[in-house]
Recover the amino acids of this structure.
């Protein structure tokens, strides 16, 4: 927890402990700061401390809801009350057992804005039930959602093409696909997906949008023509605060598409 004070203005900000030193260095020249651990008494009244702590808790809760990054104690990777009715995924064979253990490890130790477990399971179910042969994912991060797709694609005989712009996350994702025994099922393309997807050929069964939110319309324009009839466009972080209105317009006003939004994910069927 970091207290930043400037004159009479008081701010309370919560940072990931790992980011704190960076935040300190970045903020010091601008604001000056008092850190309670180092300076002792922060210059804030008890009332404003409580008020700001409540605001911080609200912001933290909102962030959790948006990214599904809840602590294990609050329900590992779950994003809604519905998920409380579910049981943990069960492995039917050695391949699934290994994949599920890698998923658990990624979620606990290498998390970067990954979908909640509940959404990962939904991606798998939709992919397998559609018999998808080619899934295209925008935004691999550390490979969490990709491994959920991989579980389905192992059964359907399909492949995932996934895009990641960040070199470090791309390397982590590749290593995780390998650990999960999915290196033959998943191709990670490193680079700006807006450019890289232009090289795609063939038919797509499922498009999963989970990269830059303001880029969803561009991805849709480029990939929808390649989506087969009865294929799906799935988009993550679709809620009133985060959804791009242009994207929502594109998926809800085209009579050839049918869209529902549930639990922060839009599911769009290409009718023909
Ligand atoms: C929300 S995370 C993806 C989470 C991942 N689908 C999962 O659930 O494990 C978004 C990722 O998209 C990547 N990204 C953002 N803009 C991109 C772009 N233009 N091209 C490729 N990747 C991009 C970010 O680097 C980030 O790792």
């Amino acid at each position: 927890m970091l207290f930043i004070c400037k004159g009479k203005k008081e701010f309370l900000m919560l940072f990931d402990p790992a980011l704190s030193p960076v935040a300190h260095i970045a903020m010091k020249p601008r604001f000056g700061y008092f850190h309670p651990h180092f300076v002792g008494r922060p210059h804030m009244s008890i009332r404003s401390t409580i008020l700001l702590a409540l605001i911080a808790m609200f912001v933290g809760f909102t962030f959790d809801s948006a990214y599904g990054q809840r602590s294990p104690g609050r329900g590992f990777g779950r994003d809604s009350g519905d998920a409380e009715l579910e049981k943990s995924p069960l492995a039917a064979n050695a391949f699934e057992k290994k994949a599920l253990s890698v998923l658990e490890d990624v979620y606990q130790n290498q998390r970067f804005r990954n979908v909640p477990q509940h959404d990962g399971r939904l991606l798998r179910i939709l992919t397998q039930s559609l018999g998808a042969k080619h899934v295209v994912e925008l935004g691999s991060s550390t490979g969490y959602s990709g491994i959920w797709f991989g579980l389905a694609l192992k059964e359907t005989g399909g492949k995932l093409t996934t895009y990641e712009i960040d070199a470090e996350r791309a390397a982590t994702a590749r290593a995780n696909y390998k650990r999960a025994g999915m290196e033959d099922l998943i191709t990670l393309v490193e680079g700006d997906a807006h450019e890289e997807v232009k090289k795609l050929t063939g038919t797509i069964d499922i498009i999963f949008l989970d990269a830059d939110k303001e880029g969803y319309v561009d991805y849709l324009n480029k990939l929808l023509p390649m989506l087969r009839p009865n294929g799906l466009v799935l988009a993550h972080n679709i809620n009133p605060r985060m959804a791009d209105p242009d994207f929502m317009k594109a998926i809800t006003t085209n009579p050839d598409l049918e869209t529902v939004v549930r639990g922060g994910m839009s599911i769009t069927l290409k009718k023909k």
User: Anything to note?
Assistant: The longest helix spans residues 46-67. Confidence is low (pLDDT under 50) at residues 1-43, 58-79. Residues 128 and 152 are 5 Å apart (CA to CA). The domain at 88-270 is CATH 3.40.50.150 (Rossmann fold).
